[in-house]
């Protein structure tokens, strides 16, 4: 389920990219706690490569590009300017493609809409990473976070066998500051998602931002602001499966 349209994804990408650039300025050498072994400079370079890769796919067709090569990372002195130029060019190219145009992806969704959505959320979560590294208190806009949760549960989980392994379990996720509820059952190689209220073996309630960041391993359900119902062992099982990305 897409919560936002292509124009909104485009703006989310641009906003997140600029937040990253601003927080990275003067902080390139700092470690990124949420991305072990990365500095802020590594994070910035990673985003430039990701956008280049998906930009090549958006410009191509239904097969992955065979002649794409990662852009050459410049010195740290040039990194942010290089990154901003790449974002401006890459985001414009991706945003110009008809969302319905057939395009390759690793998921079950094969259209440009997948790329536009994926880049918006990739940049949003990493903007949070960069801001945290720079000591800036940050969160994700609730509407964007709801869409990010939906993408994670509906697109990422079915795409990786490890996420669906093990005995079946059912979890209910509920945002406290936006319209967002999900009933998810995974296990025995199957995936079933309903965007509705229900009762699972375990339930997790938090703000949309915190739930989104929790799924991506940036927050823990034991943190302030989370409410959990159900057995700790089931929650730990769920976390162990879904953090395969």
What does this structure look like?
This protein is of the alpha+beta class and 245 residues long. The protein has two domains: 6-133, Four Helix Bundle (Hemerythrin (Met), subunit A), CATH 1.20.120; 160-242, Nonspecific Lipid-transfer Protein, Chain A, CATH 3.30.1050. It has eight helices and five strands; from the N terminus they run H-H-H-H-H-H-E-E-E-E-H-E-H. The protein has helices at residues 6-24, 40-59, 76-95, 112-133, 142-156, 161-164, 208-215, 232-242; strands at 169-175, 181-187, 190-194, 202-206, 227-230. Strands 3-2-1-4-5 form a five-stranded mixed sheet. Helix 5 packs parallel to helix 7 (208-215). The mean pLDDT is 95.
Keyphrases for this structure?
49% helix, Four Helix Bundle (Hemerythrin (Met), subunit A), 11% strand, 8 helices, 5-stranded mixed beta sheet, alpha+beta, Nonspecific Lipid-transfer Protein, Chain A, globular, 245 residues
């Amino acid at each position: 389920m897409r919560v936002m349209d292509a124009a909104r994804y485009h703006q989310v990408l641009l906003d997140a990219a600029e937040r990253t650039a601003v927080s990275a300025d003067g902080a390139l050498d700092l470690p990124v706690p949420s991305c072990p072994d990365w500095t802020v400079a590594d994070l910035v370079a990673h985003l430039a490569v990701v956008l280049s890769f998906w930009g090549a796919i958006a410009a191509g067709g239904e097969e992955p590009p065979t002649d794409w090569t990662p852009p050459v990372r410049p010195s740290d002195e040039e990194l942010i300017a290089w990154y901003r130029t790449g974002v401006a060019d890459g985001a414009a190219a991706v945003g110009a493609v008809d969302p319905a145009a057939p395009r390759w992806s690793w998921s079950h969704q094969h259209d440009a809409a997948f790329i536009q959505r994926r880049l918006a959320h990739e940049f949003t979560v990493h903007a949070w990473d960069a801001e945290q590294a720079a000591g800036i208190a940050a969160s994700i806009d609730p509407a964007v976070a709801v869409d990010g949760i939906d993408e994670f549960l509906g697109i990422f989980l079915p795409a990786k066998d490890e996420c669906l392994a093990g005995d079946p379990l059912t979890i209910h996720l509920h945002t406290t500051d936006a319209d967002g509820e999900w009933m998810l059952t995974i296990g025995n190689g199957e995936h079933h998602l309903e965007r509705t209220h229900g009762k699972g073996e375990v339930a997790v309630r938090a703000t949309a931002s915190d739930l989104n960041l929790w799924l991506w391993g940036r927050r823990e359900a034991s943190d302030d602001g989370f409410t959990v119902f159900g057995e700790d062992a089931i929650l730990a099982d769920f976390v162990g499966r879904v953090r395969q990305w």
